[in-house]
Amino acid sequence: MPNHACLLPPDAEEITAERHAELLAGNAAGQLIVPDESGQPILQAPPPPSTEQLISQATARCTQLLQVATQAIAPLQDAVDLGEATEAEQAALLAWKRYRIALNRIEQQEGYPHSIEWPASPAA
User: pLDDT (tens digit, 9 = 90+) per residue, 26-67?
Assistant: First the structure.
């Protein structure tokens, strides 16, 4: 089969449109397309993330959650600093600060980064 632009190997074999659609659907769902022993494309689950990838994912999530907490804390802290906070605002401030402390201690959890117990947000 002539193939001047794609540079497929000369021994490449065609697959059916149905098989092609199956492979693309599996790939869209997160599976990898890899060759089997005979070189035919098959779907395979991706390898588990590395420790470095898990740390990176946890750090990104923690950073995002800390930003949310800091934004929630700022106006509550202002009200406390000016002596204008209600009891509910004081309680909310305490809850958000405890949450932020818990987020900052994520790395100290046993099993980190493979197993993380994320603290519940006071906003929940």
Answer: 999 999 999 999 889 999 999 999 999 999 999 999 999 999
Looking at the whole model, is its pTM more than 0.90?
no
Structure token digits, residue 33: 């397309």
What SS3 string covers the chain?
CCCCCCCCCCCCCCCCHHHHHHHHHHHHCCCEEEECCCCCEEEECCCCCCHHHHHHHHHHHHHHHHHHHHHHHHHHHHHHHCCCCCHHHHHHHHHHHHHHHHHHCHHHCCCCCCCCCCCCCCCC
